[in-house]
Amino acid sequence: MTAEEVIRENELAAYLAEYDGGDKYAISMRQEYGEPRYLFRVGGVGCMPMGDVSAIKAKAKNGKSTLITAFIAAAICGRCGHIECVADAPTVLYFDTEQNPHNTARNIRAALRMSGQDPHDDIPRLWVYNIRTMPKEERVKYIEEKIFDKGPAIVFIDGLRDLLNDFNDIAESGQLIETVTRWSTEYEANICNVLHENKSKEDTNMRGHLGTELVNKCADVWQVTKDAKDKTRFTVEQTESRNAPVDDFAMKREDDGTITIDPGADKDVVYSKKAFDTILEQTGSRRYNELKNDYMELTGVTEKTARNHMERALADGYLDKNNGLFYKRRNDAKGN
Predict the structure, then answer these.
(1) Are 280 and 262 in contact (CB under 8 A)?
(2) Which sign does the torsion angle of CA 14, 17, 21, 27 carry?
(3) Partner of 111 for a Cys bridge, out of 11, 72, 155, 178, CB 3.0 to 4.6 A?
(4) How many domains does the chain have?
(5) pLDDT in tens, 162-188
(6) Under 8 Å CB-to-CB from 212, ≥6 apart: which residues?
(7) Mean pLDDT of 18-31
């Protein structure tokens, strides 16, 4: 850092210390707030940001733990199918409130097997806890103590509903979601919560007031659906995202518990260089929504696809971004 940069940093720090009386919750437009630090990429698109809250939902016995197993395997060895871990050797915590210890261990052993690890040995950055028999009033405190002690990048709570007495109680649900959100911020971890959908086939919302509060706080919500004919196959859809959306993909659980990604769902994202060139050749740069809308109009793709194409073009280096503006950076990238 140059002397001038040090001076500017010090001036900004002094300004922020005085801005709005030094209120730590105030957002100043002079301050740059970094892009989310993603833990994973799925099909090349970033997801599961650190310092934020995520959720996995499904009907009962419909593959929620299968998706967790895939994420854990990716975190351990760097990749599971087209789920890629972009964090450097993250520590993972997994809390199971629902299954018996045998089933908990079976799922984790599958993740270890998929990662090339000894399925009957422990590894130092994966910590697994079965708290099904723990008194309900002790669970929240226990989880926070483990988060504080282990310093994880991601925490899976498989059965968030079991941390409170009544998932329809407005006050109790709100307090629990506030606690989970605080954990994500204070410990700079992604807190991924597993919650059942409502029992009705047509209702895919997460259960109770707890589910309503949770979805409002989530950066990512993943829905897992079991195939009607093949009970070992599951479809995964990112139903909610505050960032660029991820394309749907499929999983298959093998007899030994390991998981494979459906090859048909592991498709490359091919964007239109010509469309980006046409949009940017006059103005040179466009803001996110401007570029997205222009790209949709020019190519006829959906909003979700346009976002995926922009994200991939950034990852490939064909587009670049600075101060909220997108512009073209010529490079050898995928596209047509």
Answers:
(1) no
(2) positive
(3) 72
(4) 3
(5) 999 999 999 999 999 999 999 999 999
(6) 173, 205, 206
(7) 87
